[in-house]
Amino acid sequence: MKKAFMQVTLCALIALMALSAMAADSPAKSDPKKEEADALVACAKAVLAGIRPIAAARDVRFEGKVSQANALCRGGYKSEQFRLTPWVDWGSYWGTGDMSSLPSGFLTNKGPEFRGVNGALIDLEFQRVELIKFNLFDNSGTYQDFITGRGDTNGPALKTWPAMRLPASDPHYQAVGGDGTQVCKGELVRGRNLTGICNDVKNPLMGSVGTPFARNVEFETAFPELGQTELTRNRHGGRLTLLTPDPQVISRVLLTRQQTPGNNCNGGFGTKDNSVAADCDYQKAPFFNVLAAYWIQFMTHDWFSHMEEGHNAPTYIDVGCKVKLVNNVEVPLTPEDIAQLGCRPEDKVDDTYVAQDSTPTTFTVNGKTYMARAAKTFSNNNTAWWDASQIYGYDETSVKRVKRDPADAAKLLLQPLITTPNADPVTGGYLPTLQPGDPQQPQWAGQESVGFPDNFTIGLSFLHNLFVREHNSFVTEFRKQGALTPNKDCGLRDPADPKRVIRYKDITPDELFAAARLVVAAMIAKIHTTEWTPQLLYNEPLYKGMNANWSGLLGTGDPDVSRALSQIVTTSFGKSKDAAAATQWYSVFASGPGIFGLGSQNKHYDITNPDSINGGVNHFGSPFNFPEEFVSVYRLHPLVPDLLEYRDLSKDPNQITEKIAVINTFEGKSVDAMHTGGMANWGLTLGRQRLGLLTLHNHPQFMQSITLPRLDTPTKQIDLAALDIIRDREHGVPRFNEFRRQYGLRQLTSYDDFIDKSLTAGSDAYNQQKQAVDQLRQLYGTHTCDASKVITDAQLNEDGTPINDCLGHANGSVVDNIEDVDTVVGYLAEFTRPHGFAISETQFVVFILNASRRLFSDRFFTSSFRPEFYTQMGVEWVNHNGPGPVEMEKGSPNGHQEPVLPLKRVLMRNIPELKAELDPVINAFDPWARDRGQYYSLAWKPRPGAESDPAFK
User: Fold this and answer.
1) Is residue 35 within 8 Å of 76, Cβ to Cβ?
2) What is the pLDDT of residues 613-634, one digit of tens each?
3) What is the reported pTM?
4) Considering Cα of 337, then 342, then 346, then 348, what sign does the dihedral take?
């Protein structure tokens, strides 16, 4: 199968080159023609060189770097020019940027554009396949099987693990089989269970509350300050501790937003009267709005938590503001230093909970010794599934905050405001607030009652209310259909009595509630995959790639073809005992039908058969949970502005009426803000304002001085920017350079590598980046290198030699401590990024792996996406982005005919006041008043009717 696939791919490439060559028969008359001719010659060379094999070992991985011939073939002279930088090559291919990236002046422009965009997709698929092969490290006791296999099955092809059995203490222990073979059945397979058990019916414990976070990096390279191996000790030279370099000093020097004097920012707190004259400077992303910033917080509340009910461990640790580096020597900060920096030496924070810190066992295979788990592990105290647990709860405590509607138990409780007693119960209702008897921490008093109430803000209030309204909208529509056709089969089935048809009039409130939860969770996942992410990564390859992740490269085309491809993937590859077939080729071929719904079109599907229910999932040999590194790259605090530009829809949407400090919409204050402003006005506010760029010197100032009354410390304050650094160190995240090597990205050899090589020396942008590099050198320092010290086994030099402490410099040179740079600092310092990337390529590569896995591993997004679980209306609702048929967007945005995207429809359905504002909007995460222009433009200019909006002045 592998050979056949490679032959087909090679034939396709040869045919492509032949078509391009036919278009270039006439002699070149200008430089573009010469570039085209040179590119075609390069294409021929690339074809003759053959297809690059999947790496056999982790130290010879792809690294996102192609041959000179491939670079010239896919992107012309520009791609060739920047090949020698550390950054991935595909960002300079034709068609991967805005209009300026499209080929011009060639005999045929379509061929180069096709090669560029599809070359980028090929590169991304190579990365995904190698990430699946080399970056799965489970902490729950299955890793030895992953390496050794079991019986005649290769480790990466394993489907079940003893460690994923429910323990005897679980109340469902007997129901799944007790001491015998455990398989979920009956009520446990019908929907999403509270604690996340039985998503995989043969691995009941997987992804459930309390299971350990995984890793995407080798256990040996995690926790670098422990110096567990000689390589780690060589890499860092004894320079690291939990507080070295000083986190608060890094925060104040590298991360703080600089402000214009006299702008009334007041440390991010604005003015007491919310004056529009207040301003807090921040670097803005022109193509992403504040709603998108809160969206990702809404997602992370669903995916993971190291905390337990809003608190960490009872012990406290220092958080810095103690020392600085002077001539590579740590010296105490003077009072003058502290005053100048604005940090606080007396700050402390509660320590993180540790699940295991005993010495890990080891095992040896083929002469190599492996750690069976990381030096420390941490529990994910949320469900790891994309199951909307932030709304519906994730354990017996959190579910007590989830209020069902006493008038219709299939719905969640929404209450009209006193000022609008006759409002529509769905589109005019708001979540109830926490009551004295509800489980809560003191800091949550007065805020809305939701499953995950921690770190609550106005943005979370908006999204929670929106999706509770969506839940109730589905129930309302289902009830309407039931009234019209009470005896019609609704599609739902009971595994205990699978042949019984469940008519609309038969469905119980609990059954309908469970189906509505499935629909809401799937809509959220679809929004994130096909709407949020393509705006976060705003270019053509990622638009195609993310839509292919969901619905396949074939999109919503011929269902018979999609069904056939799905069968090939799940039956041929999914059941294979061979590691390559079960993992690498499964991933590649799944791009055809898409991941969503994979395995759900089996004509012989049986809701009582675990092989049918589970048939579309693939964990690639490692039980699913989020890795600590995924948590790290979602530290996205620079996205949030200090002040929200509040607007009133009933007046003039183009005018900012108040500047409201974000900190004044936290916790209980969010309720007052929401009830006073209303959903429509807050939607307008969050939808129109640009969020902050993920870059250095752009953390909100208010986040550096947040008061947390729960802290038993002298200041009761914390610097969240410094805390991000500390938490990564506590959780054992490798420092930036080794982090990149572990993920198959090219290393940096000095701080200067961060500077964008496309900039003109002496330009303002160049000077700003040079200043940041100087600050990195000041904070992290330098050392005299020793070429005898090998520092990694995850990557080799281009000549095949081991990488040593000198990173290519002469032995005894003074080199930058680039190995010590914290990962969160490093990815914020990545000034070179593909077009339209709101995140860095380092963050993105973590996403490539985990965004796919959270779909591949979830049966409710694969083989259990069927009417038996969702109802027929639920399946259509998710596929069509709402009730009724698919609605198509006007025109061809960025050259595509596409349906009205799901969040846009959710907003218009549940906040009908926004319909006129949203009508011209294509993607609800693009600032609503921005003119999208042509082909992935990042220009900040108003759409017609928004010219008077002061945001454009």
Assistant:
1) yes
2) 999 999 999 999 999 999 999 9
3) 0.95
4) negative
